Amino acid sequence: MMKRILITGGLGQIGSSLAPFLRNKYGRENVIVADVREPKDVEKVEPFVKLDVLDRNAIDKAIGQYDIDTIFHLAAILSAKGELNPQLAFRVNIIGYYNILEAGREHSLERIMFPSSIAAFGPETPKNNTPNDTILKPRTIYGISKVAGELLGLYYWEKYGLDVRGLRYPGIISWNSLPGGGTTDYAVDMFYYALRGEKYVCFLREDTVLPMMYMPDAIKAITMLAEANGSRLIHRTDFNIQAMSFAPKDLVEEIRKYIPDFEVEYRPDYRQKIADSWPKSLDDSAAKEEWGWRPDYDLSSMVKDMIKNLSKKLGVEVQ
Fold this sequence. Notes:
Elements: E1 5-8, H1 15-26, E2 31-35, H2 42-45, E3 48-50, H3 56-66, E4 70-73, H4 79-84, H5 86-106, E5 111-117, H6 141-160, E6 164-169, E7 171-173, H7 186-195, E8 200-202, E9 210-214, H8 215-227, E10 239-240, E11 244-246, H9 248-255, E12 264-266, H10 271-276, H11 285-291, H12 299-314
Parallel strand pairs: 1-2, 1-4, 2-3, 4-5, 5-6, 6-10, 7-9, 8-12
Antiparallel strand pairs: 9-11
Helix pairs in contact: 1-8, 3-5, 5-6, 7-9
């Protein structure tokens, strides 16, 4: 049972939704948000600790100060940003994660949750219904760091008994916060441009199919895995999870049901090559069998909910 939780990268896209969810379940005072950035409004985020995952002493101090037993390690440099600064991505994503694992080992933490990604796959991976156990030869520093992370987590589990668990996230869509530099970010950007009545220039081809997931399902998945009975787990740090797959043109078509005059131009850039190396859909039967995974949202229900919530946030009326 998780009692005192630390969320690294807690101000990011996933963390800003995960923290309130966990606080509602485990109590506000038992979920500590950590990030290298200062929040705009500390009172809204507290308890908060400023934390750089490259600073091992700061990690140890936070664990001791807040009596942490579980870490959701979300701090990372994402795929597109990682290619612009691979040296920083290596340090944050690999050395930072190693620091978390070592702290977990030395402090005998109960659990560490590590989100991997479809970026762990590469051009040689089967594209359709990608198996859970398959070829992992990514061509981005982000993807390489995720493969290393999956293997490190498994190593610490088998060698030290540190309960590390992880799943491979598809692209994540959320109205609550902006994405942080990933290749699937177009899917969130489109909603903002559509609701503001602006033309959107998409950085992927219109027919680029990728696995995607709505944030409520992303939060549901990682908490389900964290709370799952460990004795039922055959896999550990590398669960595929699937919710929906679509191309930019599919999303545009769905958004136009609510905003008919939404304009989009396609101008692929360096992110297209990254997207082309990723799967189109995932086989998540292991997650279903081992811890009961089931998504709640498909493309149409996700778009409906995004339009409803984001229009309120932006103060825009949709007919």
